[in-house]
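Researcher: Next entry in the queue.
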Amino acid sequence: MSQKQPLGRLREALLPNTDVRSALLCTYGLDPRFFEAEILPALLPTRLSSDANSGSIGAYLFEADEALAQTPVDVYYGPRPK
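Model: Structure for this entry, 82 residues:
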């Protein structure tokens, strides 16, 4: 995996330009901005035409809410182990 593509493995596991039908994600901690800007577009590439990092964040979040209302995506997270 290239350093230039931090989500390369996630994208390799998904069909290009195809939305997932459902997803279960487990992680330590959750960075909402990273999830909105990087993970959601990888999971729902055809449903998200806006970009979280440019333009109106409100428009992007509305679009993301609509897409997630139609796609079961569950995220389970907890604190990092000590």
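Model: The chain has one domain: 21-78.
Researcher: Noted, moving on.
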